[in-house]
Structures are given as structure tokens and as C-alpha cells.
Amino acid sequence: MNNEEYMKKCINLALQADGDTSPNPLVGCVVTDKFGNVLSIGYHKKCGQNHAERDALLKITPEIAKGGILYVNLEPCSHYGKTPPCADLIVEYGLSKVVVGMRDVNPIVAGNGIEKLKIAGIDVEEGVLEDECKKLNEVFIKNMTKKQTFVAIKTATTLDGKIATKNGSSKWITAEKARGEVQKIRHRYDALLTSSETVLADNPSMIHKCNVLIDRTLKTLEKDYKVYKNKNIIVFYDENLAQPIKEGVRFIKAPVVGGKIDLKFVFDKLYELGVMSVLIEAGGKLNGSALKFADKIYHFIAPKILADNEGRSCFDCRHVEDINLSDMFEIDSVERFEPDLMLTYYPISQ
Does the active-site annotation cover 53? Predict the structure, then answer.
């Protein structure tokens, strides 16, 4: 195996904890002897638990690891946090070389871990599968570099971009395999966000570690909707309304701009509350309004055509007369979940 193959193994190990490490990054580690024989593997399983390097090294002794090579997709930490510095442990174990996928964007680390290893006489190779390593931790990178919540949108449409008929019929657009993939996607995110219109129309359960609801006029309080059965729910509403009270619900007053809750305020507040990533599952109006904040879109497409111009569209928040004013995106991947497709795409900065 070459360096890239070992780094791919690190990435796959890290993905075993996808959705479980927030606010920490996803990290996997492989330790080999100088001949390339794997001695140990590890990955960061949860915030507060051992980092990937420590998880891998503590499974073997320094005598076994001495002179070996350590592969890790993110620069080893150099500071004391909830666990001791991984760079110190690597030095203690007498490894001869460390292969790193990407430097840590956390300013506390940011090259310090690599520098500590070099000072100790350890050979360090950087940038192996760097693009893949950055994509693995795209949430962590945005959190660290921009101090903002990572925003993703999930939508499911017909071939002609419809999410429902004009009277709201939408179950089910996609088939069972696609819906199974949606469950995996949801697990990656700290919170799910939807609108009062979606709650009123579909009454979704939204069983998640955190639910976020945008309900400007608090109309979802009129009935016992399923979303309120979640133990951790945040509701943003018009700051001009009286403070409501509902057990287990955190109500947050938000400014209203153009008749809508200010989404920038929402995402800024979520970051302040420690919500590092959010997945929006809503109708076309909220999806469309959130596009300018979106970092990533998961777009499921079913092989169906509604062919009704009154059907509801997946992104619907403005009127545009010039096609050149369209928002631009880069398609990153196309995956098949028979009989449906999933497009994953990212906005192109303009």
C-alpha cells in the first residue's frame, strides 16, 4: 500500500464516527512498521474521548511502534484539551515518520503539532489526499475559519423539480433506498431545521438530537404536533410577539425582514448555541430563502414528471427574468439509490 491508500483507510476509519464527534473533527489513524505492515488502527469516536492517534497508539506498546509510520488525516494536536497532546504521545512512542492529510485549521494547533514533531526529529509528510481530507471535515473547517454554522439543504423532487402537487401531496416522491440514505445524512448534522408550513402540512416527527423550527407567528402551538415531542427543540419567532411558554421548548425572539424571520440571525444564533451544523428539510420558500446561506445541497431526484405548473417547486423565493441571474452550483457527485438519484452540489462563489 502507498501513502494514498493508507490515507484512504484513515478517512474510512474516521467516517465510522460520522455525526458523533461534533464539535470535533472526524479523524482516523493507521500505524504501520517501517515495512508497511499495519500495527494498529484507531479513530476519534466522540468529543471528549481519545483522539484517533491516541486511540491507535494505546493499543500497542512503544517497543512495537518504535521506528514505525503513523498516518492521520488531520494534523496531530499540540495542546492540552479534554485529552493530552497527540504530538507528545507520537514522540514518546518513537515513530520515525508521520504522514498528514491536512493541517489543522484550529488556530490553537495550526502547524504547531507538525512543528513539534519535526523538532523531535520525526519526518513529516503533508498534503496526502488533502482535498479529500478537507471535504471529510468541511463542517469543522467552516466552524473554525468563519465561526459559523455549516448549512446544508436536503430536498427530494420529481424530474421537473416539484416537491408536491398544488394541494400538497408529496408522499412519497422517492423510494425506500433513497429514504434510507436520508436517515444517514440526517445523522451527520447537529440539528434539523424546518418551517411551520412543513409542520402544518406534513406533521413530521423529526426525531433528532436537536430540532429547529421557524414559526414567525407561532401557529404550530395551536395543536400538539409531533415535532414538539423532541426533548431538544428551538423555535424562532417574531420578536414583536409575547414570549410563549411550552415545556421543553426554547423560544428565541428573532428580527423579521420582509415579512420573514431573518435567517442570518437564525444561523448566527445557532452557532452561538453550539449547533455546528444544520440540515434544512422544508418547502420551497424556506429552501429558496436559505440558498444564499447554503454550504451544501443534497438533491434526490425521482424518475417522475408531475407536468403541472401549479405543482410546488423545491426552491421558490423570488422572480427572475434573466437566466444569467441564476445561482450557480458545482455538482460534486451523482449517486444512484434505485430507482432514484442523489445529486450533491456546492455553491460557486460569484
Answer: yes
